[in-house]
Sequence to fold (260 residues):
Amino acid sequence: MVLYFLGTIVFLIYLLRRSEFLSKWASAFAWLGFLSHTAALLAKSVSLGQIPIMTFQEAMSFFAWTLVLVFLSVALKRGLHVLGAFILPLAFLSLISASIAPTGTQGFQPVFETVWVHVTLSMLGTVGFAVAFVAGIMYLMQDRMLKSKQFNTLYVKLPPLDFLDSLNQRSILLGFPFLTLGILTGSLSAHVTLGSYMSWNPEQVWALVTWIFYFAVLLGRVTVGWRAKKAAYLTIVGFAAVILTFVGVVLKNQSPLGTL
Fold:
């Protein structure tokens, strides 16, 4: 967490400075944080005999780890270090949310605990939507500076609008199938465990609403041709729904009835 925090600070300073040297320091902190994070996840996986993703704390840690993995992969392939200034803070905030949640809080219903693959698939889908969210934020920033002719340091470092629009679409195309498989495996697990495919609790309803929303966005992009600014705004709204789902899970399980 400390290494991700240091990387976040250096990346934010990097956005305001013309020097590219800071990006190397920020990336170094990200790599060190990622390696230590990986070691911690591997150690816990060995001790548990499965991926540590059953509790809210574990799920958010896995989410943060996967986000940083995506950033480092893109940075190695395309040299797009500026992406870290947006993804690394999101990963750091995810770890913060995990650390401040009650230690004993179980983030998921017993149905989730019977099939860990369901949670893994759902989290991978969330990662795809998070990257689409970041691409949407960067797109709107770049578009606003371009229209106002603010050709400052940040404008120079942000990727072109076409690339950000493509990244937004590809991230949704990647995240949506994972979310779909996550919902299907969760429903099958619920049927085996509880005798019904849906219990219609708030978090399941929100997950279904999120799926419908992203399906509409994906359909609009592929068939109607929704592009650019509209798609950016929609993915930001969609990711807000994802956050609300997580918040609902945590709040429900903090109540005395949350484990019933």
About this structure: The two ends are 33 Å apart (CA to CA). The CA atoms of residues 103 and 255 lie 14 Å apart. The first helix runs from residue 2 to 16.
